[in-house]
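User:
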Amino acid sequence: MTMFRSARRPRSQWRSRHTLLALVSGLSAASTVLLTAPSARAAGPSRDECIAAADDGQKLRDDGKLSAARDKFVVCATKTCPGIIAKSCAGWRDDADRDMPSITFRVLDEQGKELIDAKVAIDTATEQPISAKAVPLDPGAHVAHVRRADGKTTDENFLLRPGEKNRMIEIHFMPPPAPVTPKPVPTPATTTVASDGFKVPLLGWVGLGVFVAGGVTTTVFAVMAKGDESDLRSRGCAPSCPSSDKDSINTKLLVANVGMGVGIAGLGLAVVTTVLANTGNKSATTGSAGTMQSTKTVQSGGVSALHVDASPSTLWLSGSF
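Assistant: Predicted structure:
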């Protein structure tokens, strides 16, 4: 009878096999780490890229371009960048987020009704539908180009300051201006006043008064001069009478002549104004201040055209001869 015995391995062989398996596993893990380490390093920016991003971000921030500066600070704030650079960039990124303004738009039609189907393009950006979400935007001057669903457009200029958050920009579509109609210039109303018979105007009465006064003056001083002359002749001193007596007579004669001239002028004024007041067509024009002005035109003799403008306070004569 044949006996089969199981072959048992010595303990030393089992230990050798376990040691080999552990060594293989360790080498495999080490190779995995060595292979994945370059990939991990390649996922982040290099040291030079971190420094360049930090420098560019600061320049953009100083120029007021906070959006582009923030993108640079995000790059240099990664953990793969040197510690001092990453820490500084993280702080600058937070500052950019704090100073970055944001806006929303509200579009109203001509009646003040809000339009929710309008579209807006900021500066040179692509047109986007109106949204209630705030849009971050760099500080400074901007222009919003708004287009309604019916095709009407309008522009709105606005200025953003650092730190303004959720600022509402209202854009109104204004109605077209109403046409301006020029106001008619009022013309003076002209009415024809019928003649009310013969009358003597005020200046006529003044002229008559001057004529009477001049006639009385002439008569009185002429009579006085004649009496003085007769007195000298009766004394028999002519023609060698004293000069004082002769000067007195000459003075009286001069006054008499002046009075005659004044009287004749007054009579002429009375005649002319009376004739003009009762001859020709009279037209009355009411001016803007309610003053009545009368105008007459007379053609006679050597006067081809004589115009007189009379009002309660003035008399103006003009004509061509």
